[in-house]
Amino acid sequence: MTAWILSIAGVTILSVVVDLILPSGQTAKYIKNIFAFVMILVIISPLPALIKGNFNVNDIFESEEIVLQEDYIYQVNRDKLTALEEEITSSLEEKGIKNVVVTINADIFQIEMKILEVNVDLSDLVIDENSGHIDIEKAITEVVNRLVGEEVIIIFNE
């Protein structure tokens, strides 16, 4: 398919160049007619393959584009997850809850990313002395639900 398009473009460019170089006259008319005939042959060249049945519709729509789109969706959703994890961590640090590791599990292969669960590792937890006495799990749950936009399963690892 691409070779066919390239051959049409090549013949067109060659005919334009020859048209610019040749002086007007009888010879130029004959050469223009020859290029017109060659252009017609190039355009109809795929027709015999269509008639013989060697033509496959799937060859036109290559599957590489679909794979590239899936890779793009994966990368975009992965970037969203990373940004969300960092945002949750920074929001918790603003509330005085530091050294928390947030990991989000989600279905990132779909266009609409679905967050399955949020893992919060509290093993290195440090509470800022200015925070006073706070309910850590409640504060984390509020931040996660606010930033995720929906209630999700939150797993606390201590």
Span between termini? 59 Å
Radius of gyration: 32 Å
- Sheet with most strands: 3 strands, mixed
Please tell me the total number of domains: 2
Name of the CATH first level of the largest domain: Alpha Beta
Please estimate the helix content. 55-70%
Protein name: Stage III sporulation protein AF
InterPro entries: Spore_III_AF
Transmembrane segments: 6-22, 34-51
Keywords: Membrane, Transmembrane, Transmembrane helix
Short description:
Keywords: Membrane, Transmembrane, Transmembrane helix. By secondary structure, this protein is an alpha+beta fold.
Topology:
Blueprint (H helix, E strand, L loop, with lengths): L1 H20 L4 H19 L2 H6 L4 H4 L3 H31 L2 E2 L2 E7 L6 E8 L4 E2 L8 H13 L4 E5 L1
Parallel strand pairs: 3-5
Antiparallel strand pairs: 1-4, 2-3
Helix pairs in contact: 1-2, 5-6
